[in-house]
Amino acid sequence: MTDEPRPQTPPPATTSVGELRRRVAAAFPALRSDLEALVRIPSVSNPAFDQAHLAASAAAVADLLRGVGMAQVQVLTATNPDGLVSRPAVVARRPAPAGAPTVLLYAHHDVQPPGAADAWQTDPYEPTERGGRLYGRGAADDKAGVIAHVGALRVLGDELGVGVTVFVEGEEEVGSPTFVAFLTEHRDLLAADVIVVADSANWKVGVPGLTTSLRGLVDCDVEVAVLEHAVHSGMFGGPILDAPTLLARLIATLHDDAGDVAVQGLVTAPEPTVDYDEADFRADAAVLPGVRLAGTGTLTGRLWTKPALSVIGFDATSVAHASNTIAPTATAKLSLRIPPGQDPDAAADALRTHLETHAPFGARVTVRDGDRGKAFQAPADSAAMRTARGAFADAWGTEPVDIGLGGSIPFIADLLDVFPDAAILVTGVEDPDSRAHSGNESVHLGELEKVVLAEVLLLSRLATS
Ligand SMILES: [Zn+2]
């Protein structure tokens, strides 16, 4: 015996997986209606939309967290160095029993704009079930992440043996512009041993995944100019190519004939160990029949560990406003996804150099830098990752796979910068058919129930590990 005070940790969780599975199943109907209530709030963070809904969704999330016994629930903001005030975020805390770790549970309550109405089979803000999936904007990304946390805390109740801080951000879909300021200002509230980011995807329906790599993002605008002003295409057409044609020729140099990115100096990370079935990929992405896939190597490599370059915007005269003139300028917005190991600044420089040195017909090429976000590579292994893998395996009855994400979660790099000693677990509520950001976004309800169970198991085991 020693004189050391005994930790106030509750006794090791003895509740069986089967009992916890039954409890999650019993709690799930109420969790589903909580999710539906959140989806009905059009909390679009894009500044072109009414920002008042973000206050309403933050208040709704705060109420849910008060209802699961969080001792301290606050709606907070921070101000970044540019004077930008953050959209409302919810921070809820329940302190750790003595000697137990603290876990930060992250999700975001803001959503993408709904997009075109005809892209939806049903109203994006009226959650609707079809075929075991719940459709609605944010039903997956990331209001299901909020519900995963609320559900785990509700099911565990007073058996929770770890400290928990829930952090539900309100501006992830606009690139978390005040994230570092928020982390810094509220550092003492948010500090944790383990961080669970529930904003990614599982491998497929029935197979869980732990997201261990994320691509980063670099974007820029490129303008091609050929004339000081527009001229008549009959009088001058022939010796002068219009700016949209020249821009198209410049864009065409960005990929080789196989469809791999042709910009020199970009990094490719090692090939992943799992691959995506081509037929599944074509179905998930809705590729039209007869279209050949671009690039070489595994599909997962092309999606996670190689650069990918897309034209995401193109400014030229619209077809409706077309006249017989040679357009003097045209602009494209380019989006470059970068794999782990690629420095964003070096990637931006490589892209700029490529664009400037491939100016077709000596046209004037101007590159304007845009956003930059770092890629992420989890450590090969950690105690928290082992605990998470075990929790996933028990929740699904199938071993999880390590997956990458082609998309970016730039704030993960910010979390690592501010909390370098925390173990970060990137978990998911989506599956390949969730269509986050698109029309007919949905969450698979059976999978969401497993996500809740996995988080229950993870939190119980982190308390005793
Ligand atoms: Zn998200």
Descriptors:
465 residues; Aminopeptidase; elongated; disordered N terminus; six-stranded mixed beta sheet; four-stranded antiparallel beta sheet; 2 domains; binds zinc ion; Alpha-Beta Plaits; alpha+beta
Structural overview:
- Helix 1 (17-39) crosses helix 3 (143-156) and helix 4 (179-185) packs parallel to helix 12.
- A hairpin with a 2-residue loop joins strand 4 (128-130) and strand 5.
- The longest helix is centred in the first third of the chain and has 23 residues, at 17-39.
- With 465 residues, the protein is α+β, with helices and mostly antiparallel strands.
- Helices cover 32% and strands 23% of the residues.
- It has two domains: 17-214 and 375-464, Aminopeptidase (3-Layer(aba) Sandwich); 216-269 and 306-373, Alpha-Beta Plaits.
- Mean pLDDT is 94; it is low at 1-12.
- The radius of gyration is 24 Å and the shape is elongated.
- The protein binds zinc ion (ZN).
- Zinc ion (ZN) is lined by residues 108, 141-142, 172, 199.
- Residues 108, 141-142, 172, 199 line the site of zinc ion.
